[in-house]
Design goal:
422 residues; mainly alpha; Growth Hormone, Chain: A; 83% helix; disordered C terminus
């Protein structure tokens, strides 16, 4: 049952990325909660808070596709460096704006869009770099460790961010975030070189289409994308945290994401059993349904502690889903396509929450916060069940077969490269 830390022992580069991202993510999660709070204070509108996530969506989609092609062709270490610097500068823009006597709303939109764009380019390089430095049999452990890294930052930092935003100012939170980026910058500059592959596909529309074609041809991959997007689009309540702060008290704004992260941490720390489960698609489906039901329970609660309890339960099942999604991705996708497929993962992973938060804000503005949350959770459950029926190969997927297929595809790619040399 206990967490498997083997990847940290066997890979120096993974250790650097893990601890560098752990520290910087602590600061980023404070910004994550403070930006919506600042927008709500400036405008008093749930819809405007939702539009923040819409502003992130467009650059994320466009640049994730480009980032995937770049990650398969160029030195992933250099991509990580440039994007980490870019995210630091975007946060510095938020800091500068918060220091104004009257912070500008448009600057919030620009800054979050820039940050999302750099993150979208970075994610494919990050995911494909990890696949290169950690053996495939340790990928379930990697996903669990990544979840722990997320949880450690997402439990304490948002809670502190909510208190800082309520009692001090957003400037303190943004300043802290900029400072913590130093850790991730140091980490990416210490990584060993990752030169471009000799026979790698150069960035092009054809190379991009090859990745999308591969993903669409395999139901087990398609299922991971669609199930996660449906769960997040219909049932992600993040945009409503500032409004819920008006109901329960502003000091609790950071407690909502912290509760989700607490549940995810419990799931990750007890995730040793996941390496013995091979029906990954089935487990993703079960976890996504339970996520939706937990969100329904959260929407019905009027007591803050019961509400946080249901959010923690939702976070638990979201983390379980994430472990098995990551296992399918990393154990089945051949390395020569890893960057391009990682770009699709970025879109599926972030498009759901971004569009879902925009939807949640608009629905809450029209029908009220509880209705938006409860209806979203119920629709989520029905959508997941329908997807499971439409994707039988995803539901029956066995991880052991996926590993074998990946080995065959990589062997075929190596053979084709050898023929080109001849």
């Amino acid at each position: 049952m206990l967490l498997d830390i083997t990847p940290l022992r066997v890979s120096r580069d993974y250790r650097l990325l893990f601890f560098g991202q752990l520290i910087s993510y602590f600061g980023s999660m404070m910004t994550f909660i403070v930006v919506p709070v600042q927008m709500f204070k400036l405008t008093g509108s749930n819809a405007m808070v939702g539009y923040i996530y819409l502003a992130e969506f467009v650059p994320m989609v466009i640049l994730a596709i480009i980032g995937g092609a770049l990650a398969d062709a160029f030195d992933r270490r250099q991509i990580l460096r440039v994007t980490e610097i870019g995210q630091t500068l975007a946060t510095a823009l938020l800091l500068a704006n918060s220091c104004l006597a009257q912070p500008q709303v448009w600057v919030l939109f620009v800054a979050v869009a820039l940050h999302a764009g750099f993150a979208a380019v970075q994610r494919p390089a990050f995911e494909s770099f990890i696949q290169k430095v950690v053996p495939p049999e340790h990928m379930p452990a990697v996903m669990a460790l990544n979840a722990v890294r997320y949880c450690l930052g997402a439990i304490i930092s948002p809670a502190l961010g909510g208190i800082v935003a309520a009692q001090y100012s957003s400037t303190v939170a943004y300043g802290f975030d900029v400072t913590t980026f130093l850790a991730s910058l140091i980490a990416v500059f210490l990584l060993r070189a990752d030169p471009s592959r000799e026979h790698a596909d150069r960035p092009s529309l054809q190379a991009t289409f090859q990745g999308w074609s591969y993903a669409l041809s395999r139901q087990e991959l398609l299922g991971t994308y669609l199930v996660d997007m449906a769960a997040m689009f219909f049932a992600m309540p993040q945009a409503l945290y500032p409004a819920l702060g008006k109901i329960y008290g502003e000091q609790y704004v950071g407690a909502f994401p912290a509760a989700i992260a607490t549940g995810a941490l419990v799931a990750s720390l007890t995730s040793g059993w996941t390496k013995h489960v091979h029906r990954h698609g089935l487990m993703i489906t079960i976890a996504a349904v339970l996520w939706g039901l937990a969100i329904v329970g959260f929407g019905y609660m009027t007591n803050i502690w019961l509400a946080l309890g249901f959010l923690a339960l939702a976070g638990f099942w979201d983390a379980i889903s994430g472990i098995f999604r990551g296992s399918i991705w990393n154990q089945t996708i051949p390395n020569f396509l890893r960057g391009r497929l990682a770009s699709i993962e970025v879109i599926s992973y972030l498009a759901g929450p971004m569009l879902g938060n925009a939807k949640m804000g608009v629905v809450a503005e029209e029908f009220g916060v509880p209705t938006a949350i409860i209806s979203g959770g119920l629709i989520c459950v029905f959508a997941i069940l329908i997807l499971a029926l439409l994707l039988p190969k995803f539901l029956r997927y066995d991880g052991r077969e996926g590993v074998k297929q990946k080995e065959i595809e990589e062997a075929n790619q190596s053979g084709a490269a050898a023929e080109m040399n001849l």
